[in-house]
Amino acid sequence: MNIKKEKAGFTIIEVVLVLAIAGLIFLMVFVALPALQRSQRDTARKSDVSLVSAAITSYSSNNREAFPNTAGLKTYVTDLSENSKDDDGNPNITVNANTGAQTIRPAEGLIVVTQKSVCGESTSSSQELKAGLTRQYTIVTKLESGSGAYYCQDN
């Protein structure tokens, strides 16, 4: 009497299919991860702009409504993300010496504050500022997503 004994195991087709599916999953994760990280850094930069705006208000309140210079503003800015700090860990902020209408192009990670201006048109290559009143100011930073668009907030 012949008894046929089948060996348990996977066929080569099953193994290749599982490896192909696993490869596709890994590929999707590695493609999506950098975009997610860019988005998180941009969200942190936008939050940093709000912190700088609060620092300007605080500085002005404590200094007879004077507008801060770069050094004065940096003393009021706390809790910025690493995305808006220089290599030494200091806030990467500058108060623009020019005021009013102009075109600016801040580098990535730099926050530029401009007095007497309001936000204008933003393109991938520059941020337009329009002339504003004495107490108006803009805060501009460059984002990573959107082909390097600029984020502008005015008061």
Q: Kindly state the mean pLDDT as a whole number? A: 89
List low-confidence stretches: none
Alpha plus pi helix count? 3
Question: Pairing-aware structural class of the strands and helices?
Answer: alpha+beta
What is the subunit organization of this protein?
single chain
> Could you tell me the number of beta strands?
7
Helix content: 40-55%
What is the first-to-last residue Cα distance?
93 Å
Radius of gyration: 26 Å
Strand percent estimate: 15-25%
How is the biggest beta sheet arranged?
A: 4 strands, mixed
Q: Which outline best applies?
A: elongated
Summarize the model shown.
The chain is of the alpha+beta class and 155 residues long. It has three helices and seven strands. 40% of the residues lie in helices and 21% in strands.
What does the model show?
- The protein is an alpha+beta fold.
- The protein is built from three helices and seven strands, in the order ααββββββαβ.
- The strands form two sheets. Strands 1-3-6-7 form a four-stranded mixed β-sheet, covered by helices on one side. Strands 2-5-4 form a three-stranded antiparallel β-sheet, with no helix packed on it.
- The protein is elongated and about 105 Å long.
